[in-house]
Input
Amino acid sequence: MVCAFKGWNDAGEAATAALAFLIDSFDATEVGRIDPEEFYDFTAVRPTVRLSEGRTRVIEWPENSIHAAQVTGAEHDLLLVQGTEPSLRWGQFTGMVVDAARELDAHMVITLGALLADVPHSRPVPITGIASNGELVEKLGYERSTYEGPTGIVGVLHHACARAGVSSVSLWASVPHYVAAAPNPKAALALIRSFEGVAGVAVEALDLEESAEDYERQVSAAVASDPEVKSFVERLEQTIDEIQPEVTPDQIPSADAIARDFQRFLRQRGPNDPR
Output
């Protein structure tokens, strides 16, 4: 089960963009919804009005939907929970998500999040991974979080999974705070690539790769036109380059690992896939 929510956990709309891309990529089918009535203060998270066929007014409420996708050639299928951070009753809300994971036999819950940070747009997107138990920490190379402070629905859901004995991993992308553009395709792509490693699912993301390249070019052009912002970004780049750890030989994937990943990708594509 993969979850992402609009709101506090979704800087640059990177997390929800990544989840929407997964839904589209695997042609997922909606299998359930959570009724919004109990979980939102509609004066804070307001419904919207749109015109259908240019005439009929339609109210669209904050929505939390569950999609299912079969992944050919992969070890597991996917459940994709797409929604908006609720205003009320977080314990009840996360309990419903955990219950759905159990009822639908999900062996792991992966949450996606994004946060604003002092990172330059021109460098690889930093991804932080948090695992719910020691076995996952060792397997994935993540660490238990030492963060103390305010949290969002993603953090509460991750905690609820741990308390319920459901394995969970929380992936967070760092998004440049000086870029207002949303969604951020570069951060969304980084989340998807990290998700691939955790879930063992290959994702064809050529369109998102192209969008990420366009995003970086456009932001670089905008930064170059403002001397103050350019100077600020150059300082961020220098800081990142100084603290970026060097890649040691033991951190480079082995030939066997690369071959396994490639074989998995070919299995998912199938023999008749024209791509």
